[in-house]
Design goal:
Two copies of one chain form a homodimer.
Chain A (H helix, E strand, L loop, with lengths): L1 E7 L1 H4 L6 H12 L3 E8 L3 H14 L2 E5 L10 H9 L3 E3 L1 H13 L7 H5 L2 E3 L3 E3 L8 E5 L6 E5 L3 H20 L2 E9 L4 H12 L6 E7 L2 E10 L2 H19 L3 E3 L5 H11 L4 E5 L5 H7 L10 E5 L2 H8 L3 H7 L4 H15 L3 E7 L14 E8 L2 E8 L5 H19 L1
Helix pairs in contact in A: 3-4, 8-9, 10-15
């Protein structure tokens, strides 16, 4: 099946918002074996809207639109979809009733023509409920059943929820198959190496399919299968996942698309371990990532941001001699920082980082991108050196945080 | 002038990357008074590429393409642009020479036909140098001079740099005018209120133009003018900026599109003040934002992430009675935290936050979205209550950080 995506909205053409709907839908359609041929964006202009839909149908079977379903006059997507597919709008009493109920909740009793307009839908449409907003979506086929259009609201949260809850299933019914996939998150291996070692599995793949993705320092393998039933698809994915793990298993930290911080948090919770952090160059980013996860108070009593040498000595008990002899950016300081955080908070584990994030701050022997991660747990203590020779503050900091999580994952 | 944007690349249609070029170029073109009518995305397919360009020229004067300028066979944008505009590719010796030099730097002496292909350009083209990559860009008009196409590489960094350094000027020459703008960042006022109070200035505006933008809890006013010379444009913008500030000046914290954290950092540096933080619900996010700015060690000796009550008592000296009587999420605790951070580090200013980020963690009287920001500086001490009744952890945390910066800005 070939598809085109059509985003409707002047705010996209004005550059006020980024079109994240297109990337989301492209990914979801591709996973389902649907080829995305075009992305189009147009404003709320009825002629251009109709023209683009007709153009897309010249070589596509499916058009998915986002936006232009609101209650105001310039929201025209519904009317144009009707026109192109040869249908007409009719009042749907159950939608009208649900709008009435929602308005009553806001203590509004008067219905404007605009409110009523939202309850009108093409007579042959399959309606998609909107559980996060007011405008319902719908799918509509032409009389011959050869072309279909699916229309969803523009706000990404409404669109994604509607896609997951309704449109995905509608697509499955249209394609007579069910998609199941797993996203295997990896660390310690680059995307090109990942692809190379998996090439024997990727080459000539039909179903399940294997694809690798990269995103700032992390990469992932997606194993997807489209079969007649969910059970069959899941079984095929699980079998292929095992083969993938036979090759790259030691790099995989999640088979469920979790973040590294989530996996580490869960691991600490499961083992009833607590953690404290001492950060210099990352300045609180690690603590912020740990506490981003609800319920983190169970595993994280607190942490220290010790930017100055004084703070390192006073708050963590780093020795003056250590700082003088080895410097603030050194294995010795990193270890004393980790030990200090553990001792001060009484946590089971101490983790630390000290480094030069850049730009600037370099000395003769030490350059931006250099950092040390210290780790103490029970009798175990170790230090990892990071040496990136990179002057990008933001990336050096986020890389250090990732190495801290990796160190935890590998050593507890 | 009316324009269409055409992004070329299968990776966009596969959903592997988000199209950030389109939003960037849309904004830049709109600022310059050029109406963006369409965004298109197609793969590296010559027929579809030519078809879309011809379609765009039906009602646009300008097409800007990104992507498909690389050295490989499937990069076809240059060839198709030539075909549509009625020109032919010729070898540009100076480009060939610069490729040769670049390759020599990598110790490669053999030139492949692909390398040579990159030195071919349309005979009538205006060439745009690529200072971040290999593929140059270009602009090309049709013989009548009524239509123009500008082609740039796809990687956002290469594209943006080329736009700023070359394409912007080419556009100015085409439109015989220079654009100048200021972005006024505001806090403490919502976008709709901002628009309402500025309506007398916005209504019927021609030049300078005023537009309001909103982005998660912050909003901004953009004042732009397009005149014959930069001096005239700048003068017009400055005069209008004064009028805007007469109305909303007290909400404006930057006239140069700076972040709140940057403005606060600069202010502290200028006054040679130092700051320490004590964070509970934000878990290090505030410290991470402060230390995100290079040179922050001058103003920030360090901070505390005190998640547990024990940490609040031990690291900050918060009194046990305070925690028992008022609770951890209270004005009293927030103030003792701020005071503790200041006392411990010897900083001039102490700032703190304690709250319930959610989801969960609520008590009978205290709900997610409730937080207190404490502030001490000299004899001054104050507390700000935040009460959002919102269960969104990420947004509650980032909102608290913003209020911390606001509190600093208003009180030092």
């Amino acid at each position: 099946m070939k598809a085109a995506l059509l985003s409707v909205g002047t705010e996209l053409l004005m550059g006020q918002i980024t079109n994240t709907n297109a990337v989301y839908l492209s990914r979801e359609l591709n996973y389902r074996g649907i080829d995305v041929m075009y992305h189009y964006t147009v404003g709320d202009n009825p002629e251009r809207l109709a023209e683009i839909i007709n153009l897309a149908f010249r070589d596509c079977d499916l058009v998915i639109t986002t936006g232009g379903l609101g209650p105001t006059q310039d929201d025209m997507t519904k009317e144009i979809a009707c026109e192109v597919m040869g249908d007409e709008l009719v009042m749907h009493p159950e939608i009208l009733e649900s709008i009435r109920r929602r308005m009553a909740g806001y203590k509004i009793t008067e219905m404007t023509p605009n409110n009523r307009k939202q309850a009108e839908m093409p007579s042959r449409a399959v309606i998609f409920r909107n559980s996060c907003g007011t405008a319902p979506g719908f799918a509509l086929e032409n009389i011959e059943g050869t072309k279909a259009i699916a229309c969803m609201p523009g706000p990404p949260r409404e669109m994604k929820t509607m896609f997951e809850k309704s449109v995905a299933q509608w697509l499955e019914e249209k394609t007579d198959s069910v998609l199941f996939y797993r996203e295997l998150k990896c660390f310690g291996i680059g995307e090109s190496e990942l692809e190379t070692v998996l090439l024997p599995l990727i080459d000539g793949q039909t179903d399940p399919t294997i694809a690798t993705y990269a995103k700032e320092g992390e990469c992932s393998v997606r194993v997807a299968s489209k079969r007649a039933t969910r059970e069959e698809a899941e079984k095929a994915v699980d079998e292929m996942t095992e083969k993938v793990c036979d090759i790259v298993g030691k790099f995989v930290y999640s088979k469920d698309n979790e973040e590294l911080s989530q996996v580490v948090s869960k691991m600490l919770k499961d083992r009833k371990l607590t953690l404290s952090s001492a950060e210099s160059c990352t300045g609180g980013l690690f603590a912020a990532a740990v506490t981003d996860i609800p319920g983190s108070s169970e595993i994280f009593p607190g942490g220290f941001v010790t930017y100055s040498n004084e703070a390192k000595m006073r708050d963590l008990g780093v020795k003056k001699e250590t700082l003088e002899k080895y410097g603030a950016v050194s294995e010795e300081t990193a270890l004393e920082m980790a030990e200090g955080a553990r001792r001060k908070t009484g946590a089971d584990i101490g983790i630390s980082v000290t480094g030069i994030a850049g730009p600037g701050g370099e000395t003769e022997e030490k350059h931006p991108g250099l950092a040390y991660v210290g780790f103490v747990y029970g009798d175990k203590s170790l230090c990892r050196k990071i040496d990136r020779k990179m002057n990008d503050r933001r990336r050096n900091r986020s890389h250090s945080v990732m190495v801290m999580f990796e160190t935890l994952l590998q050593n507890i």
